[in-house]
């Protein structure tokens, strides 16, 4: 069997695409021939004789099987034949079947049967049987109007006559020739977006999904000079359908965009039809307008908000902001998490980097991209002029300035009004006179200590060391082989990225991982990955690549219910208390995690706690070793910069490891040492000058300023 797209024979069609259409290929007559199997006809000159030519013409017209809940098996008895099927974007896929091949199609797929030019001899047996997914019996099929033994009674033709079909095909072919297809469209958009400043300096990218095919730009090339034949084409599992030829002399070697894992998240989670990744300057500025610790961009009461799906003039447009990483592919987990946490968003901002925008079609994605960029430019200008772009206009349309808001708040408090806690998203934002927050006592609870952020370690601080070493690590070690084998069989781009990261970051002495396609094949590759991972785990190494793969294995374990995480009993209550109900509410502090585990592993742990459920609502930021090692002073300075604090002494770090505490203290942070059951003994000499706490309840006295931090 071979399969390809008719509009471009160079584009192979993978089994994954056929499977998405409900089609499958096997050996002739190997399908289940149960009592409900009904052989309709044999398209054979020997069997049909004079009726052969007319029957072949009938099956050569585009048709489906209507509303009948069954599948059809096309069994090639002799010779070879084309079966053309339509994909979800209405493009023809041509399947070439040889002797003893079988193609099974569900009733809803448009199809046609044609002889090949090489062999006009056709001998195909067509059988019908119930669709296994519907459990329809033979009696139900006959009751639906089938006349047993008739191959034509349930056909639904797409066009009224062969002449109409030929005319429609001619128009479709002409249109494809005029616009150059999806590749030419992406090239045209790249040039337009370059002129707008969205994809300059080889940055940015565009991807369009056409049915079961995904078109993507290459990485590291001048987007305004890109050619249609330089685009990559993949199926929804990441298999390559078309790889561009070697680049022209004087141009950079071609490779698939590093945005691919992020694009696939929007396609799989949101069923998007197109994604635009922009490096526009206003997108970057929008991530910084509210400070480095802002996790959202908000704007309201602007006409151009109407251009964003699901929003109107009075809507508050909310766009999540995720932290940037040194490598684009490492953003994939954070972007997927943001997409799931903000079900109404059609964009995710990346701090100091740019934005990802998607839509159901390329036209919707383009329209929304233009609106987003306009709104970011507007917000930057309003901010420069001192106008609050997040505030709801008053009756006359005027926007309250911060000074006016403060004055009105004082007046309301004097009258005993405005005492309720703000329930607006983001917690503690003043949005007009009806969003005035809390009492003076509540707002100043942690003011005396000066602490605005609490940064927490996980192992030995929020979570038992035994859970990590007796549950999480053994699970990753025992499941790594099965996980990699399963994902490699699916050609999952995520696991391919994990393997490449392990390969690139292999420590000295670590078992190497061969390139794919080397000696031993996929099985040898999988065995090498298992050896590499277990070698690192036996030595308790904390490489970023290892932690990333472990996080993906744990994600699968949590999803299956095989894992539930542990936190100490005092932790959930403390998180709620410190944040005043969630993510730094009025009068509360903001919470962040810094662990050697990947950011995804951190989020999973706090999402699936056995005793308290999902605790992520209290956490603002997650940091892993991509910012630096936990015993390095510079790491804590980098974290403080990301949090946007005025001074490092506004951050309290909780850890059970003295060396980490020393690095954080040298950077300028406040530090308390966590002493939990099962933790290693604290070296008294190294631990001099540190205050030890055995419960988060003991931290309150320091946060409230009742006890001073040691100098």
TrEMBL record:
Substrate binds at residue 259. GO terms for biological process: L-methionine salvage from methylthioadenosine. Residues 184-380 form the Class II aldolase/adducin N-terminal domain. Residues 127-147 are annotated as: Disordered. GO terms for cellular component: cytoplasm. It is an enzyme of class 4 (lyase). Its EC number is 4.2.1.109. Binds 1 zinc ion per subunit. Its cofactor is Zn(2+). Zn(2+) binds at residues 277, 279, 353. Pfam families: Aldolase_II, Hydrolase. Its main location: cytoplasm. CDD domains: HAD_EP. It is found in: Cytoplasm. It catalyses: 5-(methylsulfanyl)-D-ribulose 1-phosphate = 5-methylsulfanyl-2,3-dioxopentyl phosphate + H2O. Pathway: Amino-acid biosynthesis; L-methionine biosynthesis via salvage pathway; L-methionine from S-methyl-5-thio-alpha-D-ribose 1-phosphate: step 2/6. One of its GO terms (molecular function) is magnesium ion binding. Signal peptide: none annotated. The active site is at residue 303. Keywords: Amino-acid biosynthesis, Cytoplasm, Hydrolase, Lyase, Metal-binding, Methionine biosynthesis, Multifunctional enzyme, Zinc. Belongs to the aldolase class II family. MtnB subfamily. Catalyzes the dehydration of methylthioribulose-1-phosphate (MTRu-1-P) into 2,3-diketo-5-methylthiopentyl-1-phosphate (DK-MTP-1-P). PANTHER family: METHYLTHIORIBULOSE-1-PHOSPHATE DEHYDRATASE. NCBIfam families: enolase-ppase, salvage_mtnB. This is Probable methylthioribulose-1-phosphate dehydratase. The lineage of its organism: Eukaryota, Sar, Stramenopiles, Ochrophyta, Eustigmatophyceae.
């Amino acid at each position: 069997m071979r399969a390809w797209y008719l509009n471009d024979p160079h584009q192979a069609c993978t089994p994954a695409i056929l499977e998405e259409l409900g089609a499958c290929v096997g050996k002739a007559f190997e399908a289940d021939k149960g009592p409900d199997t009904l052989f309709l006809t044999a398209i054979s000159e020997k069997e049909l004789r004079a009726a052969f030519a007319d029957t072949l013409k009938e099956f050569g017209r585009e048709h489906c099987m209507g509303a009948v809940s069954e599948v059809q098996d096309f069994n090639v008895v002799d010779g070879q034949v084309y079966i053309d099927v339509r994909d979800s974007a209405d493009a023809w896929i041509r399947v070439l079947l040889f002797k003893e091949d079988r193609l099974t199609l569900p009733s809803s797929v448009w199809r046609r049967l044609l002889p090949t030019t090489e062999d006009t001899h056709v001998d195909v047996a067509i059988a019908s049987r119930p669709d296994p997914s519907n459990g329809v019996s033979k009696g139900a099929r006959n009751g639906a109007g089938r006349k047993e033994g008739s191959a034509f009674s349930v056909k639904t033709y797409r066009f009224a006559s062969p002449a109409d079909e030929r005319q429609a095909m001619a128009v479709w072919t002409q249109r494809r020739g005029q616009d150059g297809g999806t590749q030419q469209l992406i090239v045209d958009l790249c040039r337009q977006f370059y002129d707008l400043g969205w994809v300059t300096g080889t940055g940015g990218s565009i991807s369009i999904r056409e049915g079961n095919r995904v078109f993507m730009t290459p990485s590291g090339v001048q987007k305004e000079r890109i050619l249609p034949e330089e685009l990559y084409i993949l199926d929804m599992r990441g298999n390559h359908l078309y790889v561009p030829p070697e680049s022209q002399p004087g141009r950079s070697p071609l490779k698939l965009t590093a945005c691919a894992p992020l694009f696939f998240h929007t396609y799989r989670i949101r069923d998007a039809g197109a994604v635009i990744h922009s490096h526009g300057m206003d997108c970057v500025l929008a991530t910084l307008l509210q400070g480095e610790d802002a996790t959202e961009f908000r704007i309201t009461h602007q006409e151009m908000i109407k251009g964003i799906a699901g929003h109107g003039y009075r809507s508050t447009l909310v766009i999540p902001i995720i932290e940037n990483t040194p490598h684009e592919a490492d953003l994939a987990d954070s972007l997927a998490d943001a997409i799931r946490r903000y079900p109404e968003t059609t964009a995710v901002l990346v701090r100091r980097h740019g934005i990802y925008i998607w839509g159901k079609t390329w036209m919707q994605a383009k329209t929304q991209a233009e609106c987003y960029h306009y709104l970011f430019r507007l917000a930057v200008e309003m901010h420069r002029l001192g106008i609050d772009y997040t505030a709801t206009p008053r009756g006359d349309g005027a926007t309250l300035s911060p000074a006016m808001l403060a004055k009105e708040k004082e007046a309301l408090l004097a009258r005993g009004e405005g005492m309720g806690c703000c329930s607006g998203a983001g917690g503690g934002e003043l949005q007009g006179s009806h969003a005035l927050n809390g009492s003076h006592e509540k707002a100043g609870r942690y003011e005396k200590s000066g602490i605005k952020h609490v940064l927490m370690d996980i192992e030995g601080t929020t979570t038992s060391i035994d859970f990590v070493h007796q549950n999480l690590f053994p699970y990753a070690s025992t499941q790594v082989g099965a996980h990699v084998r399963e994902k490699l069989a699916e050609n999952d781009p995520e696991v391919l990225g994990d393997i490449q990261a392990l390969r690139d970051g292999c420590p000295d002495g670590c078992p190497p991982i061969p390139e794919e396609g080397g000696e031993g094949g996929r099985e040898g590759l999988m065995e090498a990955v298992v050896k590499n991972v277990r070698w690192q785990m036996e030595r308790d190494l904390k490489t970023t690549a290892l932690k990333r793969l472990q996080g993906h294995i744990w994600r699968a374990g949590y999803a299956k219910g095989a894992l539930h995480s542990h936190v100490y009993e005092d932790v959930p209550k403390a998180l709620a208390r410190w944040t005043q109900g969630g993510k730094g509410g009025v009068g509360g502090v903001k919470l962040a995690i810094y662990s050697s585990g990947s950011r995804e592993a951190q989020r999973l742990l706090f999402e699936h706690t056995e005793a308290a459920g999902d605790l992520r609502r209290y956490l603002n930021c997650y940091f892993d070793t991509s910012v630096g090692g936990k015993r390095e002073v510079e790491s804590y300075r980098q974290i403080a910069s990301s949090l946007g604090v005025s001074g490092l002494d506004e951050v309290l770090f909780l850890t059970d490891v003295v060396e980490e505490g020393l690095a954080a203290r040298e950077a300028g942070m406040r530090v308390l040492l966590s002493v939990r059951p099962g933790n290693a003994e604290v070296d008294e000499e190294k631990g001099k000058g540190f205050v030890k706490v055995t419960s988060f309840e003991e931290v309150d006295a320091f946060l409230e300023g009742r006890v001073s931090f040691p100098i």
